[in-house]
Amino acid sequence: MRRLIAVACLACSFAAMAHAQQIDVAFAGGSLNSPGNSFSGGTFLPAEGGGAFLGFNGDVLFKPFFKGNIGVQAEVDWKGSQGLYGGQIPYRPLFYDFNAMYARRFTKHFGVEALAGIGGESIRFYSNSYSNCDFYGNCTNYISSNHFMGDFGGGVRFYPYGNFFVRPEMRLYLINNNEEFSSSHPVRYGVSIG
Fold first, then answer.
1. What is the pTM of this model?
2. CATH number for position 88
3. Rounded distance between C-alpha atoms, residue 11 and residue 81, angstroms
């Protein structure tokens, strides 16, 4: 009986702490910009930018601590349609990251945020057949090239009604060993609605 009471008290404590947080989720849309095509050692390296990017993100601001201005954020963004790598091979980049975040609401209708963190880039190169199979017989029609990355960014939040927000935003990705493209530092810009 004591264990049951202890578990119930612990569950109530976690529920109270979770209720004291600010949790936001948003849908994002935008584009990616990077330096143009280049040649390196006789190899053509295309630009990674262009096309529409879609994504989801969410954050938690810790209300009882730091006046509710400090929190964590996570997001995933991907190219909405396949591009052609070198004009021949279909591909799609996907970015995901986990960030520390500072956010401040100045008025009822205006706030800002800044963030920095780590994550990864997964570039999927597609083929016409299911040739990439694992030990269990699960097959895909793509192979992935994965890279560690850091990111920095920020946004301006406009609150037209209650806690509903529109956030113009920008992210600078610093991608480690991004040898498939002409640049290791593309910039994603867009708008999130949450």
1. 0.81
2. 2.40.160.20
3. 44
